[in-house]
Amino acid sequence: MTDDPPPNPALLPAGFVDLLPSDAEAEAAGMESLMQVFAAHGYSRVKPPLLEFEDTLLSGSGAAVAEQAFRLMDPDTRRMMALRPDITPQIARIAATRLADAPRPLRLSYTGLCVQASGGARESDRQISQAGIELIGPDTPEADAEVVALGAEALAVLGVPGVSFDLTMPPLAPALIAEVGFTPAERQALMRALDRKDAAAVAKLAGGLAPVLTELLHAAGPAERALSVLGGLVLPEPVRALSERLAATFAAIKARVPDIRLTIDPVEFRGLHYHTGVCVTVYARGQHEELGRGGRYVSNNDEPACGLTLRPEALLRAAPARAGRARVFLPVGSDPALGRRLRSEGYATVDGLAPVADSVAEARRLECDMIVAGDGVVALN
Amino acid sequence: MTDDPPPNPALLPAGFVDLLPSDAEAEAAGMESLMQVFAAHGYSRVKPPLLEFEDTLLSGSGAAVAEQAFRLMDPDTRRMMALRPDITPQIARIAATRLADAPRPLRLSYTGLCVQASGGARESDRQISQAGIELIGPDTPEADAEVVALGAEALAVLGVPGVSFDLTMPPLAPALIAEVGFTPAERQALMRALDRKDAAAVAKLAGGLAPVLTELLHAAGPAERALSVLGGLVLPEPVRALSERLAATFAAIKARVPDIRLTIDPVEFRGLHYHTGVCVTVYARGQHEELGRGGRYVSNNDEPACGLTLRPEALLRAAPARAGRARVFLPVGSDPALGRRLRSEGYATVDGLAPVADSVAEARRLECDMIVAGDGVVALN
Predict the structure, then answer these.
(1) Contacts of B17 in chain A (CB under 8 A)
(2) A308 lies in the same domain as A364
(3) Which of A54, A129, B11, B299 has a CA that sits 20 to 30 A from residue A149's CA?
């Protein structure tokens, strides 16, 4: 083992990357735009830490993501800590402890990095940025709608084209199936078939539910059509309540954002395991990856909550590129007041640090777009 | 051990904290202000990951902080990874690999979280924000001065009062001592005495160097006086070169920022172990903690580099509080166009989600400063 080559210094662990200038700037600017939309709607920013004790971070709603967490030992206390794989459970913790006495609805926003031991939404990423909101307290269609509407506004500010929101009601299919006396094995096989959207297997396994489940499977698509199918079915009471809540949430979203593109998949029940009501996944036309997801859940202390988490890296890939600051070269001896004026006007100034024979060539070498001339600038092209 | 109480969900590991709304917002806004100052001077943002393989992260200039790093194993490769205790070595890595062909001077900026197994600058913090710059390529007083000047400008933008920059030249005292034939044990004892600023021990241990070292110890303070003491000493050649570089850097900083407050401690040689030239520590009057530090070092591939890292948490404690957005309550049924207008004017709007009997009381309960009335707002007080 003494002949190991020296490590390649540019090699990073799978799923961890360096963002280089234009991407790093676009990601930061995009994240800041999202946070400003949230702040403008009265969402207050909180910033929980990257690490917590494993038993607090991965309990409650955090249990759903426990298997994705990196663990490490606190050398001080010898207790196990975990790097957060998701920020939402931390917000739930803060809402239930430090902000337990803050008035409800409690509107919180957050942004930060998460680390997952196995690849998350995108197979290759293990470090994931999140930017999101949580609306804690009310359990109403209007609360669900506020969260979706803010997501739509944030993505519009970023200029992401062709955004659509796919609504689901994860408890619906399990509630429907629970009404029938399946054995646990039958139930599990049916759930798996539904999860795979395998209509043939569903028809075979669902017994008396086969017509309803088949119709619901085919109803997935534009929201109005899916709701019309759902509304036409005779559903047992607990299932009908879920179906009506989905319809009411749809109506509340359309009332706030009339031109939003909404689809509904009524039997979908995947996603994080803690969701208890309407959920949403955000897509953009032509992008294979999710831009974000969220939904309703029961927070710590049994408080109703609804949240949405956007993924800035995915948004960066979906949004149009932004122009950065134009770069102006200031040769040695340029008037400092001119530099200050240019910066206040939104330029980036690049100071020459030593005299050069050819300032224009030096400006080009330094990837500047302009150079000072007199008390103004001239473009280099 | 079965009678353990349930964990207190609000308990975080020592050195990790939740930032609650006003602090989290102030920290984020302050960080963004810093990054905008850096961007306006042509510093391009890069974003290395939180984790790297231990052998790349903690080699080169990273070796100096290796003992502070948390390690964890990559389950995919079974290689050891480390959470970064400092971002500067990652910037050096990027400059020497992915940006090896970018033109020099290479100006890079970064912001992000670091994690240290033992408390860093502030005993209790183990999660530390950093926001900084690196100027890679030139080894000149003007390059040193640019970095200090940008730090001064960034702190002025934040409104931190009473900022001062303490300059040191860490190689100076070791170079002076190396000119004399001390035994390793004598040398180590003398260095320790200097480190403690123990003038009596220095006088006893320094032999023929005692007069010079004593004078230098007492010279620490306002920059002009310290430089005058240094300039009056007869120093061996390599030491004189260091002293002259310190004086030239001082002059270059004053030329860029005439009203900057500078002190010099000529025999100080602490700090991160990788510094090879002028170093700087940033303080604010009345604050015991450092606001930032930086200096000159030799980057990967033997490239000269100079950097400055500011600590947003410390800046948050030193800067005046910023006013957040004023909050306006919009009762159910308010005109959505009015909400949009208010948000575009910088207000935070807080939507009522259900009708209430007393909108003013509800607005107060939701900690709003104003409520809509007609097509405008009225203040609540």
Answers:
(1) 49
(2) no
(3) A129
